[in-house]
Design brief:
Blueprint lengths: L3 H11 L3 E3 L6 E2 H17 L4 E5 L5 H12 L3 E4 L5 H8 L5 E5 L1 H4 L10 E4 H15 L10 E6 L9 E5 H11 L10 E4 L6 H13 L2 E4 L5 H10 L4 E4 L1 H13 L9 E5 L5 H10 L4 E5 L2 H4 L5 E2 L12 H9 L4 H6 L41 E2 L7
Parallel strand pairs: 3-4, 3-5, 5-6, 9-10, 9-11, 11-12, 12-13
Antiparallel strand pairs: 1-2, 7-8, 8-15, 13-14
Helix pairs in contact: 1-8, 2-3, 2-6, 9-10, 10-11, 11-13
Length: about 375
């Protein structure tokens, strides 16, 4: 079982629809399929056992993710903000890694010497395009159970690896995302880095749903607003600090955002005043807050519920307070917290979800409900 199955199903469903980038110049689903098969052939040719990436988020990331999956090796996006020594140390933990790096970060990997092959993102893409015609018919290979390795930030201790299995990711996507669930004009703006769980989960869920993805490699609030307008963005996922900066920028220079339908935010608590102002500025945008896999995969954990009709602010203060004054609404609701009643229009538990589905990428530390194979421990990938 491989996450490449999600791309296979999407190619059959969406035809020539654009998957990545602008409508006029983006990569279509069939092109992504061909390029990922070419990338997998390249990995098999040099017998790589893992595929690491050092760079910003962009169309290269889903290509690398599915190339690794088709080659049967884990994909390992690394934090490009780490020092050269730290990056080389993490790469030293991987078994026979192939390293792809954006041009601006390749120089930081000189400490690897000649023991690891480093290719720039531009060279990798050009090689895939050249090899695509020959690689399209190559048969699949046996898959490693690990699809993705994400390292913790390392701010308080040495970075530790989180192993995400193919079966868990597939089970979660199939249980929460509808194939063909996105309209053909929908577009998701990706502004989180590739080493963040939302970067990986969002790639899988949007590819499967049929929602085009565009990228903002380095987040800046004015560029985010400009991208929403230019690309007719309908969906986005933000962490609270990003949402706060966008609210401030919008206050100083508002722009019409008619295409924007939904913002999922999570990963930390949000200040009530930020949410109040966001609701007032964007009254037609569906704000969904929470934490865990649903937000990380772009679904939003809990819809901001409507307030009472007698609220003189039109429900804005009430709606914001019910989510911002406590901790995560999903967990509060699970405890029966009266501040966060169940929203009948929001997502709830799916009784049909397979029993081994990934219940939460943030609940991977031995607590009840964990999916198998997801853990927060130091690791070394098996050799041989």
């Amino acid at each position: 079982m491989s996450i490449s199955m999600l791309l296979d199903l999407a190619v059959e469903q969406y035809g020539d629809r654009i998957a990545l980038g602008g409508l006029g110049s983006g990569i279509s689903y069939p092109a992504l399929d061909r390029l990922s098969k070419a990338g997998a052939a390249d990995l098999r040719a040099d017998e790589s056992q893992s595929l690491a990436f050092v760079g910003v988020n962009g169309p290269t990331v889903p290509l690398l993710l599915f190339s690794a999956a088709r080659a049967g090796v884990p994909f390992v996006p690394l934090n490009y903000r780490l020092s050269s020594g730290a990056l080389c140390g993490l790469l030293g933990e991987l078994d026979r890694p192939r390293v792809i790096a954006d041009e601006s970060f390749a120089a930081a990997l000189t400490g690897l010497g000649g023991t690891v092959r480093v290719t720039t993102s531009t060279e990798w893409l050009a090689n895939c395009e050249e090899r695509a015609a020959r690689a399209a018919s190559e048969p699949p290979v046996a898959t490693s159970p690990t699809a993705i390795v994400l390292f913790t930030s390392g701010t308080t201790a040495k970075p530790k690896g989180v192993l995400l299995r193919h079966e868990n990711l597939i089970s979660y996507i199939l249980g929460t995302v509808e194939l063909g669930g996105a309209a053909s004009r929908e577009c998701n703006l990706v502004s989180v880095p590739p080493y963040h769980v939302a970067g990986m989960g969002g790639a899988l869920s949007n590819i499967y749903a049929g929602r085009r993805m565009v990228y903002l490699p380095d987040f800046e609030p004015r560029r985010w607003l400009d991208s929403v307008v230019r690309e007719s963005v309908s969906h986005a996922m933000l962490v609270p600090t990003m949402l706060a900066r966008i609210v401030e920028e919008y206050r100083n220079g508002p722009v019409p955002l008619p295409s924007l339908k939904s913002i999922a935010y999570g990963g930390a608590k949000i200040q009530a005043r930020v949410l109040v102002e966001a609701l007032r500025m964007l009254p037609d945008v569906d704000l969904r807050g929470g934490s865990g896999a649903r937000v990380a995969l772009g679904h939003g954990g809990h819809r901001v519920p409507p307030g009472p009709a007698e609220d003189p602010t039109g429900g804005v203060q009430h709606r914001a307070g019910r989510l911002a004054e406590g901790d995560d609404p999903d967990r509060a609701r699970g405890r029966g917290d009266p501040r966060v009643p169940i929203d009948p229009e929001g997502p709830g538990p799916d009784p049909q979800r397979p029993p081994n589905s990934l219940e939460g990428l943030d609940r991977a530390n031995g607590r009840p409900g964990d999916g198998p194979g997801v853990r927060r421990t130091a690791h070394r990938l098996p050799r041989g």
